[in-house]
């Protein structure tokens, strides 16, 4: 029986050739992005110093489907379509009647979903005559992805990595260099933004917000250099929809329809990539899955942040986006899921939560690692710390099914492997990991620093 | 056109259900394994303290095909059939008319081909009522594979890792622990062999020979404990033939027949696993590929060793095997391809080289890493140091094709990823790696220490 398979594969001939744009199907659009000076909606020219015009066009497009260029499809084929797994062994260990499926993005060159957008971003920048891309990276997944993508199109790649991760995860740096990228710990003294932070906090462990400020500063100063963002923006989530489109095809092959979809959220790109095609189906009345974003309790933008206009970076150089935020100078505790340490959230994901089209929940670190270890011992893949949040939520749902006797179909995205995050597992196995809890007054104080913008 | 695909996949329904036993098709059998005391061929009883009878049976079987148990196939399906890739981007970078295919085993839980044999070994031991497996590991690939396999069948797994690697490569230890294995640095004070070494050399950084002694000692002393070996023996190579069987099916799907097959050799299991099914086809006259083993110039057993009876371990505790050897107390330079640092070679592979049924060549370290970096930047996968030897040989062959204009079909096995070996790439990229060359007199001296056995 097809549903009993372990891996549901797609042939390259079945590879999706279009990205899906959720903006085309939303009942109401998300609030506009504002210029920080004029507080007016930004236009293409405001973004032109950082992004090529084709990506800017994708950022604001309301076309339902956008063609994936052939050169991008060619690179995607190095690992796409990615496999969908039925977690038979995890199900058995949980003794649940639920059927758990996971879409595995760890087969990519970087080991995560990030190359899905790195490749088109490098492609469009190369096409626009750009010579170099700059970016930030947290745990290093995004930096690795962009370094790989730049190698494919002959672009230079310069990366600022959050120092906490740079120090914790030295292998990421080497992998980025193996792909030909150049990497700096952030805050660095190579930029104005970095020097300012270091003057005030010489021991700063950094944050994605600070690293973004550094990368953006360098890109803005050089005409041959653009900036690339690995999450948050509409065009990034657009590129990631190949995940959900493939998963839809794969589930259909085994005659399954998801009842619950869970994905981890940092900036929102993995979650959006998985969920948006299913949300399209839900909006069209073809299925009724519960769709749930899972974030770390230590950085709870969706569950404890405020929905307001805020900067995307710490230095306040970016446009203002309406999103769930903990305040742009909030510095999350250095939890091991570096990719989920972002003060804000994709405006599109925030809009969906605010519109109650999707749910959000938060998980403490130890519950996530416990799920990650159980997953490794049953399914054989050591997950990155980020998707252990999704796995913990899938396990919780499967155990609920065990109580209720419901044979729900649970779908999640295993967005990356943890081969370069093993120090985190060592910390967990040796009992030295703690659950970071945030006091209400600390969150209130961080949010109080929001820029004065009309609600 | 099918041949233009990047990935040639097999559905689970096409998974091979039998292992291929080359012994059934050899014109002459390899010389027998001898008891070190009597110098007579060993029998099953000699191996029974360490291995279950079903594995001993496979070691000496001359049946052409052996059924893979259903429980083993179930675990294989977590990653098998593994993908076969056409290296379009590497070919383009080399500007070669050759068509290069690589069978990728890095998709397995351990990140290499090792689980192909770890899983059946754990299965047969569990079936025989064994409670615990012991083994040694150097760089850690084999230990990881066995820890994973033991987790699948509810066996305890206890591993002695050479202390130098234990200290230098902490990620492997963590991965083993994440899979539930117990790992000790070797020499340890848990065994007689370890205590003896530590008494004489308290700061000993260990060796594979010492680690084997410790693992064998514990297995021999406990009725509920057996020992598992990751390469060299016939049953290990037998289990690995799933690699070549799948590759045969995959090449047939795109209408290709290999002209040249290259694989890296340490103990011989990856190479044998890829090559034996193709050798069967060659012996039957259905194809005529050149089949070439590639070893490191720093540990050149096949190309500069002697074909003679020798011990499998440094301490001289094992039966005597006729093989290409550099002498059982030869200590290879600490090259980064830890999996290729073995003084001997699988007796079966040695017999094939001696019979001129396959060729052998050696590659220096820097040429291999240069090929590995080029591979990573074009194909997106960072190879383990071991298969960079095969990649270097494939690149050499492809460049020969560029000279001659021949459009040869080159097949190789990318037996593992290098995610946990990135320190080696760091050393290469920073220019601190050297090519180790061996003086003829050093090799002659090592070989002079061979045990006195009839030639």
UniProtKB/TrEMBL annotation, chains A, B:
<dbReference type="InterPro" id="IPR001926">
    <property type="entry name" value="TrpB-like_PALP"/>
</dbReference>
<dbReference type="InterPro" id="IPR006653">
    <property type="entry name" value="Trp_synth_b_CS"/>
</dbReference>
<dbReference type="Pfam" id="PF00291">
    <property type="entry name" value="PALP"/>
</dbReference>
<keyword id="KW-0057">Aromatic amino acid biosynthesis</keyword>
<comment type="function">
    <text>The beta subunit is responsible for the synthesis of L-tryptophan from indole and L-serine.</text>
</comment>
<protein>
    <recommendedName>
        <fullName>Tryptophan synthase beta chain</fullName>
        <ecNumber>4.2.1.20</ecNumber>
    </recommendedName>
</protein>
<comment type="similarity">
    <text>Belongs to the TrpB family.</text>
</comment>
<keyword id="KW-0663">Pyridoxal phosphate</keyword>
<dbReference type="InterPro" id="IPR023026">
    <property type="entry name" value="Trp_synth_beta/beta-like"/>
</dbReference>
<feature type="modified residue" description="N6-(pyridoxal phosphate)lysine">
    <location>
        <position position="114"/>
    </location>
</feature>
<comment type="pathway">
    <text>Amino-acid biosynthesis; L-tryptophan biosynthesis; L-tryptophan from chorismate: step 5/5.</text>
</comment>
<feature type="domain" description="Tryptophan synthase beta chain-like PALP">
    <location>
        <begin position="78"/>
        <end position="416"/>
    </location>
</feature>
<keyword id="KW-0822">Tryptophan biosynthesis</keyword>
<keyword id="KW-0456">Lyase</keyword>
<dbReference type="InterPro" id="IPR036052">
    <property type="entry name" value="TrpB-like_PALP_sf"/>
</dbReference>
<dbReference type="InterPro" id="IPR006316">
    <property type="entry name" value="Trp_synth_b-like"/>
</dbReference>
<comment type="subunit">
    <text>Tetramer of two alpha and two beta chains.</text>
</comment>
<dbReference type="InterPro" id="IPR006654">
    <property type="entry name" value="Trp_synth_beta"/>
</dbReference>
<keyword id="KW-0028">Amino-acid biosynthesis</keyword>
């Amino acid at each position: 029986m097809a549903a009993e398979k372990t891996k549901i594969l797609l042939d390259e001939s079945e590879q999706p050739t279009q990205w899906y744009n959720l903006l085309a199907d939303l009942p109401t659009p998300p609030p506009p992005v504002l210029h920080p000076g004029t507080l007016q909606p930004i236009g293409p020219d405001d973004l032109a110093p950082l992004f090529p015009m084709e990506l800017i066009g994708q950022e604001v497009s309301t076309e339902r489907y956008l063609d994936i260029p052939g050169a991008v499809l060619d690179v995607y084929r190095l690992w796409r379509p990615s496999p969908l797994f039925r977690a038979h062994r995890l199900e058995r260990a949980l003794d649940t009647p639920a059927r758990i499926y996971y879409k595995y993005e760890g087969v990519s060159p970087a080991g995560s979903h990030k190359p899905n957008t790195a490749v088109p971003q490098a492609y469009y920048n190369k096409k626009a005559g750009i010579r170099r891309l700059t970016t930030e990276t947290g745990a290093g997944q995004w930096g690795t992805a962009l370094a790989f993508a730049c190698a494919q199109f002959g672009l230079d790649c310069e990366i600022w990595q959050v120092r906490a991760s740079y120090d914790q995860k030295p292998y990421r740096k080497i992998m980025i260099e193996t792909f030909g990228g150049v990497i700096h710990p952030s805050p660095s003294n190579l930029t104005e933004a970095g020097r300012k932070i270091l003057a005030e906090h010489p021991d700063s462990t950094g944050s994605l917000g600070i690293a973004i400020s550094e990368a953006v500063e360098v890109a803005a100063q050089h005409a041959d250099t653009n900036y690339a963002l690995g999450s948050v923006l509409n065009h990034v989530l657009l590129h990631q929809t190949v995940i959900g489109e493939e998963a839809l095809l794969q589930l259909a092959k085994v005659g399954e329809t998801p009842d619950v979809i869970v994905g981890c959220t940092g900036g929102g790109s993995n979650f959006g990539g998985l969920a948006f095609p299913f949300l399209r189906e839900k909006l069209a009345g073809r299925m009724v899955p519960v769709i749930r974003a899972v974030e770390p309790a230590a950085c709870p933008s969706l569950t404890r942040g405020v929905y307001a206009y805020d900067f995307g970076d710490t230095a306040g150089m970016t446009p203002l986006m309406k999103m769930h935020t903990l305040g742009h100078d909030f510095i999350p505790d250095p939890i091991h899921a570096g990719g989920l340490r972002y003060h804000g959230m994709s405006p599109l994901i925030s809009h969906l939560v605010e519109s109650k089209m999707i749910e959000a929940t938060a998980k403490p670190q130890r519950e996530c690692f416990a799920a990650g270890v159980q997953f490794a011992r049953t399914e054989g893949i050591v997950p990155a710390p980020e998707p252990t949040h999704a796995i913990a939520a899938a396990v919780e749902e499967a155990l609920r099914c065990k109580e209720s006797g419901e044979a729900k179909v649970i779908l999640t995205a295993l967005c990356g492997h943890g081969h370069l995050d093993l120090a985190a597992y060592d910390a967990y196995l040796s009992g030295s990991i703690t659950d970071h809890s945030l006091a209400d007054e600390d969150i209130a104080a961080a949010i109080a620093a929001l820029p004065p913008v009309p609600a």
